[in-house]
Amino acid sequence: MKNFVGETVTIAFGNEKRQSAHIVLTSNQIELASLNATETNYVNKELAKDAKQLCIVLNQYHRQVFILKNGFDKGAKRNEIYRVLGDKAAQNLGDNKEIDFVGFDDTEALYCVAEGLVLGSYAYTKHGADSKQRTPLNLLMDAHCSEDIAFSNLVILCDAVFIARDLVNTPYNFLNATDFANKAREIGKDSGFLVEVFEKERIKALKMGGLLAVNQGSVQPPTFTVMEYKPDNAHNEQPYILVGKGVTFDTGGLNIKTPWTHMREMKCDMAGAAAVLLAISAVAKAKLPIYVVALVPATDNQTDSTAVLPGDVITISNGKTVEVLNTDAEGRLILADALSYAHRYNPQLVIDLATLTGSAAMAIGAQASVCMGNASADYKSRLHAAAVRTHERLVEFPLFEDYQKNIKSDVADMANISTGAPEAGAIIAGIFLENFAGPSWMHLDIAGTAFNSSKDAYRPKNGTGIGVRLLFDFLQQEIKEHQ
To answer: Residues 86-134: pLDDT tens digits?
Structure first.
């Protein structure tokens, strides 16, 4: 019997049966649920009368039984249906943490139901009076379920997503830039990747003017965290580099955010940093044979007499000068230093994730993240395929060269926002970043997907952990692509 054990979930394969457990099964194996004749007739009638009925729930008091409809055509749409059904089961579990899966002879469907079930069980209660340690779900797969090594990765990924969500949900007074760097050290030691943290003096020596400028108004120092996973059997000499925006709280600086109701969510402005930290953690824990580097520039963006002023000119570490016309366009400044730093690795591909612009969220909402970049068509195709598989979808925006004139400055190499028409804000941010990125780069603007105002199936209210599953899936497929 295989056992996959994590902090979030324990998965085992065997023939044990627990009468107190909840059971989830596919409708072509109803007899495995040990229902009586009345219950079986009820389930068959419900499935027959309503084609849209995807889940039948039976409350037997000592347990609940979830009959999941099957027969969907295989593909990403079907897999997302099963994740959502898994979440529906999670919402009906109550205090029961033991779940039997019976009757699944489709490993992919089983994986997706389990994924939705576990991810849908997330809750952040660290600071309440009733705060308690998270209790793992115990999933038992019976003899009809296919044993598959993929379930070990499911355990790793669910743990990673939960930690990413926790970081995004943590209030700023518990998670400043130094706290984040310390958390990266802790996770690196546990997962098996190297972590080096640059303190303020090292950042100054590297002339990271963007990161230093954003940090000017804060009493807390900035950090720049470099994480590296390079196993002996890595298939690539040139690393894949993940860059995450790490603004631990964003007031907007002197261009202060309005209305105030929007600012209270700004602890989430390090969601990109959380995603790349936990993505490299998952890659290392899964021992994937791939060379990956993650970079996180981190600071808060505060208002103070020392804060960077609108109209100030700063110098990024690659020597280019920037006129800061809006202090609330700070994420692109710290990413400029990180993207410039990435050049020294001669990377295969750079992907940055950032809660960068409200324009991205306004354009496509919370249903997908905006992406753009100069990577090859092949890289873009594979990244989009991973986005579809994980349902962390991407919509590509153009980076027409014409847009470069929008950030032309009279006093510096460029401005940090458009100096002309205010349209295309998400693209203008991408155009700015392109001046610091290398020749193989993708930018993911996760402003609309990183933080939910309400629960959306297995994506909870508040921090969603977006990007962890997408990056892991993409990197896992890159290994297969280059074998």
So the answer is: 999 898 887 778 888 887 878 888 999 999 999 999 999 787 766 667 8
Would residue 436 be called left, alpha or beta, if left means φ above 0 and alpha means ψ between -120 and 50 degrees? alpha
Domain boundary among 115, 148, 181: 148
Active-site residue among 257, 267, 285, 469? 257
- Is 257 tagged catalytic? yes
Residue of 83, 200, 332, 382 marked catalytic: 332
Residue where a domain terminates, one of 148, 180, 198:
148
**Same domain for 144 and 9:** yes
User: Domain total for the chain?
Assistant: 2
Query: Which residue has 């349902």 as its token pair?
Result: 391
- 332 belongs to the catalytic site: yes
| Closest residue by Cα to residue 13 from 162, 191, 155 | 155
Q: Is the pTM of this model over 0.90?
A: yes
Residue 374's CB is within 10 A of a number of other CB atoms, namely: 17
Distances (CA, A) of 270 to 163, 214, 228: 13, 14, 19
Instruction: Find the domain containing 8 and state its range.
Output: 3-148
Residue 143 and residue 238 share a domain: no
Among 147-161, 179-193, 339-353, 386-400, name the one with the lowest average pLDDT.
147-161
Nearest to 221 by CA among 243, 204, 245, 242: 204
